[in-house]
Amino acid sequence: MQKILIIEDEPNIRELVLYNLSQNGYEGLAAEDGLQGLAMARSEKPDLILLDIMLPGKNGYDICRELRAEGSKTPIIMLTAKNEEIDKVLGLEFGADDYISKPFGIRELIARIKAVLRRYESNPEQEASANGQGTPAGAGIVIGDLVINSDSHEVRLAGRPVELTLKEFDLLRILAENRGRVMTRDQLLDKVWGFEYIGETRTVDVHVRYLRKKLGDEDNEGKYIQTVRGIGYKMP
């Protein structure tokens, strides 16, 4: 049974989510503040974390950032009471895989959980890496000095590893697999998020911006990812 940890200080939300997790076949774990949540994330090693932003003790941004700095690959869905772009952008910047704004529908939340876990399970080497078991070499897509290895779920740029979130990796992989072809934002949402995403296509733009930053393409836009105005993106 997959374990899902919810770090949320509002008891009504915790209880509602825990109940629905059990109804959908998951083992639910809960923490009511940031310090407890971070400790449980480290000790319990959940399959996915639902992480509130505004928490006593330690906020969700700091928790996400610390887990990623420690090398954790556990998928994280941020929960926010605000529907402002800055909350979403910061969450993605610190390594979150997805976000959902309060108030949210349980069906939407469960759909997002299933989609993230499904994508995570499709890359078992990612899980092995997260558990310290290492990753196989495998073949990859080579674009100049950029190597994207779908088997080991690794990206290397000029020989050095590039740390990407699950969403960033899949976005880069999809663009690379369709090199030379313009992918619309809606196509990327469908292929990367894996279900009818209830949100704005701005999500794609945010992920592309951070991909460029990690690939050193900020001041040389177009080397790896080109913007096709009014349509979407492509890899040249």
Arithmetic mean pLDDT = 83
What distance lies between the first and last C-alpha atoms, to the nearest angstrom?
43 Å
- Percent of sequence in beta strands: 15-25%
Strand order, largest beta sheet? 2-1-3-4-5
Task: Show unreliable segments.
Answer: 124-138
Count up the helices: 9
The succession of helices and strands, N to C, reads EHEHEHEHEHHEEEEHEHHEE
**Structural class by secondary-structure content:** alpha/beta
What is the β-strand count?
12
Shape: globular
Question: In words, what does this structure look like?
Answer:
This protein has 236 residues and is of the alpha/beta class. It is 42% helix and 19% strand. The chain has 9 helices and 12 strands. The chain has a 5-stranded parallel β-sheet with strand order 2-1-3-4-5, sandwiched between helices. Helix 7 crosses helix 8.
